C-alpha cells in the first residue's frame, strides 16, 4: 500500500508509476527492491514527491526525470 495515493489524480498516479519505472531501470539489481514507492505527496509547488522503500525521497517531474 502506498500512503497518500488516494490524494492523487489519475494523471498524477500515471506520472508516479511512469517515472518510478524509469527510475528503477537506472539502478543496479541490488537496489531494485528498495525502489518501491511507500508514500506520495505534493509539495507547496504541487510537485509530486515520493518516498521509496529504501528511505530516499524524490521529486518526480512531468518530463520523466527525478531529483
Task: List the SSEs and their pairings.
Elements: H1 10-25, E1 37-42, E2 48-52, E3 57-60
Antiparallel strand pairs: 1-2, 2-3
Structural class: alpha+beta
For the biggest β-sheet, the strand order reads 1-2-3
CA-CA gap between termini: 23 Å
Number of helices, counting only DSSP H or I runs of 4 residues or more: 1
The oligomeric state is single chain
Number of strands: 3
Percentage of residues assigned to helices: 10-25%
Shape: globular
What does the main sheet amount to? Answer: 3 strands, antiparallel
Instruction: Indicate the mean pLDDT.
Output: 97
User: What gyration radius follows from the Cα positions, in whole Å?
Assistant: 11 Å
Brief rundown of the structure:
The protein is α+β, with helices and mostly antiparallel strands.
What features would you highlight for this structure?
3-stranded antiparallel sheet; 67 residues; 22% strand; single chain; alpha+beta
Amino acid at each position: 500500500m502506498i500512503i497518500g495515493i488516494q490524494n492523487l489524480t489519475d494523471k498524477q498516479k500515471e506520472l508516479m508509476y511512469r517515472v518510478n519505472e524509469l527510475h528503477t531501470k537506472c539502478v543496479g539489481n541490488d537496489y531494485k527492491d528498495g525502489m518501491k514507492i511507500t508514500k506520495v505527496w505534493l509539495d507547496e509547488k504541487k510537485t509530486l514527491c515520493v518516498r521509496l522503500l529504501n528511505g530516499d525521497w524524490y521529486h518526480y517531474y512531468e518530463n520523466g526525470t527525478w531529483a
